[in-house]
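FAQ: What does the model actually see?

It sees only this:
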Amino acid sequence: MNAVPSNDDQAVVLFGHGARDPEWAGPMRRIRDQLLAAPGAPRVELAFLEFMQPTLPEAIAALATAGAKRIAVVPIFLAQGGHLKRDLPLLVDAAREAHPGCDIRLATAAGEAEAVVVAMADYARACLR
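And it is asked to produce this:
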């Protein structure tokens, strides 16, 4: 029987494209803060494809070194575009090879989640008020 990892063993990486303007990551920091505010929160790191630090390999290495055994990589993208279809799976596969003791899972783009679509539609509707 496999033991379910404790929250100390779990981590989330919020993965974004990155931008030259550091303010661009503000919403990702707010998502991280929301996750960390919950009781029993997992570790949470931000990671970026380009322009910003840390990179995905750096973030996963830091979490693995800190004892994470299960890591969810959550792309904070609107849709599954080219970077998520081509680049990100390669990065995740390399991280799995580098950290065989970690269960590294790749989620679909956050914008593809039904709850996110509903929240965005609600926001758009509210813009008419």
